[in-house]
Each structure stands twice: as C-alpha cells, then as structure tokens.
Amino acid sequence: MSDLIRLSFSIERNLFEKLEKIVKHKAYGNRSEFIRDIIRDMVVAEEWDSNDEIIATITLVFDHHKKELGKKLTDVQHKFHDIVLASTHVHLTHDICVEMIMVHGSSKAVNQLADKLRQQKGVLHAGLTMSSTAQKLNEAS
Ligand code: NI
Question: In this structure, is the dihedral angle defined by the CA atoms of residues 135, 136, 138 and 141, taken in order, positive or negative?
C-alpha cells in the first residue's frame, strides 16, 4: 500500500455540487475513492494515447443471419492472433449474436482490430472497453 497524502483543493461551487451528486448517485463511500478512480481512468487514457501495452475487451453485437459474417469475424481475429487472448460467443436471441473478445497488445493494434471488426457488414454495434495491464497504475511514476 502506498503512502497516503492528504490534500485540499478549491473548485467552483457548481462543480462541487456535481461532484457530490455523482458520488452519491454512484454510491461511492467517499469523495476520495471517486477522485482516485478518476485519476486511474486518466492514467489508463494516457497509456492508450501513448500506444502502450494495454488490456481491452471488444464487444460485438451482430446479425446472426448475415451470410458469412461469423466466419469473417473469426478470420479478422486470426489475423490479430498475437493480441487476441480469448473470445466468448453468446447466441443472444434467435437473430442476434454477441461476441466478447479479450485482447492484450499495443493500443494501436487493438484499435485496428476493433475498427476491422466493426466495419464488417452486419455488425450492429462494436464496443471497446479500455483497460490496463496495471503496470503504470502501480508504479510510483
Ligand atoms: Ni450466435
């Protein structure tokens, strides 16, 4: 556990009220934990901007009946086999499939993979959830 630093800062009242509303709405135990999470999100965003090695999940929602789409999505993943860790396919309804793909690689490669997948005809939505290997989250800086 790192040393804890206590700090105080000033913000406009309207921002403070927004902060309180969000902390309450998201059921954070206290403001500090919320601020820590915002900082962690900024660290992860910086990792992505710096083309660091990252972790992500790509969620694809697609039309089960679109001809050859399942095969095309698999082919694209094979081209990026070095960054695809695992994938799970769910037959969500009679017509809709969902595939979640866990990836680990440079943010550039992950973005390229996500873009290739979302551009396939019949993909209704592609979500990219950005996360981190946690190396920078743990280091002193
Ligand atoms: Ni399916």
Answer: positive
Q: Which residues contact 129 (CB under 8 A, 6 or more apart)?
A: 56, 57, 58, 59
Digit-coded pLDDT (tens) for 109-133: 999 999 999 999 999 999 999 999 9
Identify residues whose C-beta is under 5 A from ligand 1, the ion: 91, 97
Query: What spacing in Å lies between the alpha carbon of 74 and ligand 1's midpoint?
Result: 13
pLDDT surpassing 80 at residue 140:
no
pLDDT per position as a tens digit, 45-68: 999 999 999 999 999 999 999 999
* Cα of 124 from ligand 1 centre, angstroms: 14
Contact 45, 101 (CB under 8 A): no
Give 106 Cα–ligand 1 centroid separation in angstroms. 29
Query: Quick one: tokens of 84?
Result: 């695809």
Phi and psi of 43, rounded to 5°? -65, -45
* Tokens coding 103: 């990836």
Q: How far apart are the C-alpha atoms of 136 and 77, rounded to whole Å? A: 27
First-to-last CA distance in the chain?
15
